[in-house]
Give the backbone structure.
Amino acid sequence: MSEFIWIASFPKSGSTWLRFIVSHLMVDMDGHKGLVREIVPNIHDWTGGLRFPWHGAHAAKTHLKYDNLPPRMKTRSAIYVVRNPLDVVDSAISYLAPQSEEQKEKIVESFVEQGSVEPWLDTLGYGSWQENVQSWTREKRDFPLLVLRYEDILDDASKLISMVADFLDVDVDEKKIEWVKDQTAFSSMKKTEKAEIQAGSKGVFTDERLFDKKEFNFMRKGKAGGYSDSLTDKQVADLTAGFGQSMKNFNYA
């Protein structure tokens, strides 16, 4: 039975960014960004083997609620990244690409009423935003857990990279931290996505592309508070009320 170091989050919350950070801390990839898929595989689409153990465990990305993890995949530790759910909704709308305002409103309504949309909610086992966050963070776990906020990574990437390195027991100095910061900056990851699309090859980001649309990009803005440009005041109020106490727990309301 393999042991895993989970890189976990609700969709559109920053786990891909964290996946890059962890990969660059664990392995000197020498510019081969495609290795991220193998160093921290996404368990929802990965069919290859596990080639990069870290202290006897394997890092892997998941959006599953904690209780929905496969029992055969034993947890060694986990890093959970949480993001303001209003920005999650904004990013989800872009990702799901509604073709009309009516379709967009239905996505928002689903988040208001259920905290998520299908197939994320039940079909894939991710649960609502609230359920996902709480399943990982509300109880004391019997394994080491590091909880990060997406916004804090934006504010001070060097500090958060150092925290992740310490959690994973990676020996780093200031030069290494700054190198990881540079290699995993939004502009760097966007450049990687563009190269994958142009090459037409399977990569970290092209795996995430649900639509055959040239204008679709997985990497969008890389900022916090973008929801204010796309959601109405009423939608923000309704969503905030729907997400409730969980938003307050992470200082989002």
Summary: The longest strand covers residues 74-82.
